[in-house]
Design the sequence.
């Protein structure tokens, strides 16, 4: 009880600081490419269909390679896999720089975007599991909150800075080049991390590709958390309909749309920074349920609002609640997953979240076309509340979950009858600090 919480515990470790700075640089670079590709293609072709193809050519290789990439992250040193993946992303960004500078055919743009999708598929399961591999749970929980905060900050500033750079230079060449530098900075930052050799005690077969899915299915508390996130994103897709609300309901035009899009990110950044200042939650499972329920209520509020101020507050709260759930779910995932499975579990998690984002946007658009945007958004918020109630009832272990740093992963080779993780009892000293 005398152990005081240090909100800067994670940042006091040098390699964590380097990792966060490098990750921010890479994220900003990815944001630059996202903005620059859209602008570049539309300027060259004047065809909106080209913009739709951008997401498709990146998500197809990412989905196809997600499971193999997770297996690679568990078979080889993750630092090396991450460096190779971001080297691929840097090569793609340099290629886009050359294509834009020399006005090469747009087919080369899409070829390089496919390469970007491949790089992302291998980057996510390797780099997202590095810190959990080398840090104690308590320090990792704090470092992960800072990681989420820095990611939100990069996601807020990256698109704006990319747009300003394109306007100032009269083209996308400089944005592509700086994006390449961002990925190279991340590669350099990974050199500060120790190399952890992969577990080579077991022969791997084809079934190992699906070991991450098996672990998630057999870990009730993690399955409950991922179900909350999956259906929350799937049903609460207000972001996809923001242009409709900005133009036809709130009557604020494109400038108001920019504010609406920024509000969730500001809420997410605020909440994640707050999470770094708070001691570990004693009942994180209940906090997770409350956060997702808050997300649903804020979504309903946005759908019913006719005042731009109220709408901005509701969107701010959706971002804040989503960020809290992200911190808890991400920390839980890394702590309860055996290290020899972290890459594959992270890959499956990325696959589910990526699909829920895409399907959520489709669901929002489809229901808005059938029933109108207000019913679509409000119905999604109500559906989120129903999912929260269902998860709380189906998986009571989530409600009883103790502090995250007191959990311990069980080796993947443990008998199937054993729980996927061991948790100290509520009366033990470690569960009450």
Sequence:
């Amino acid at each position: 009880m005398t152990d005081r919480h240090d909100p800067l515990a994670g940042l006091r470790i040098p390699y964590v600081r380097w990792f966060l700075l490098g990750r921010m640089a890479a994220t900003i670079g990815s944001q630059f490419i996202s903005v620059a590709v859209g602008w570049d293609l539309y300027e060259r072709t004047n065809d909106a269909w080209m913009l739709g193809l951008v997401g498709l050519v990146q998500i197809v290789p990412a989905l196809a390679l997600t499971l193999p990439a997770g297996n690679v992250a568990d078979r080889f040193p993750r630092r090396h896999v991450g460096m190779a993946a971001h080297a691929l992303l840097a090569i793609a960004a340099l290629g886009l720089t050359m294509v834009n500078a020399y006005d090469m055919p747009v087919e080369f743009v899409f070829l390089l975007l496919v390469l970007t999708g491949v790089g992302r598929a291998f980057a996510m399961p390797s780099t997202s599991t590095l810190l959990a591999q080398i840090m104690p749970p308590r320090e990792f929980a704090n470092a992960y909150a800072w990681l989420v905060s820095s990611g939100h900050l990069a996601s807020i500033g990256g698109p704006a800075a990319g747009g300003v750079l394109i306007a100032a230079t009269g083209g996308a060449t400089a944005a592509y080049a700086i994006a390449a530098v961002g990925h190279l900075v991340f590669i350099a930052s990974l050199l500060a991390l120790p190399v952890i050799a992969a577990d080579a005690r077991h022969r791997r077969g084809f079934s190992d590709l699906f070991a991450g899915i098996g672990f998630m299915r057999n870990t009730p508390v993690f399955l409950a958390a991922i179900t909350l996130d999956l259906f929350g994103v799937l049903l609460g897709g207000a972001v996809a309909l923001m242009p409709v609300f900005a133009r036809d309901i709130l009557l604020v035009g494109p400038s108001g749309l920019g504010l609406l899009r920024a509000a969730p990110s500001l809420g997410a950044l605020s909440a994640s920074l707050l999470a770094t200042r708070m001691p570990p939650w004693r009942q994180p499972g209940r906090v997770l349920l409350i956060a997702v329920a808050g997300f649903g209520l804020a979504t309903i509020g946005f759908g019913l609002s006719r005042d731009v101020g109220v709408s901005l507050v509701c969107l701010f709260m959706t971002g804040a609640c989503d960020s809290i759930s992200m911190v808890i779910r991400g920390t839980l995932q890394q702590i309860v997953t055996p290290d020899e499975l972290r890459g594959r579990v992270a890959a499956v998690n990325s696959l589910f979240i990526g699909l829920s984002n895409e399907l959520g946007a489709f669901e929002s658009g489809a229901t808005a076309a059938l029933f109108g945007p207000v019913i679509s958004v409000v119905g999604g918020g109500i559906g989120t509340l129903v999912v929260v109630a269902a998860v709380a009832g189906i998986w009571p272990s989530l409600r009883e979950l103790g502090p995250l740093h007191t959990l311990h992963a069980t080796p993947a080779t443990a008998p199937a009858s054993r729980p996927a993780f061991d948790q100290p009892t509520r009366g033990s000293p470690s569960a009450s600090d």
Remarks:
- Residues 413-433 have pLDDT under 50 and may be disordered.
- The domain at 210-423 is CATH 1.20.1250.20 (Growth Hormone; Chain: A;).
- The radius of gyration is 22 Å.
- The longest helix spans residues 137-169.
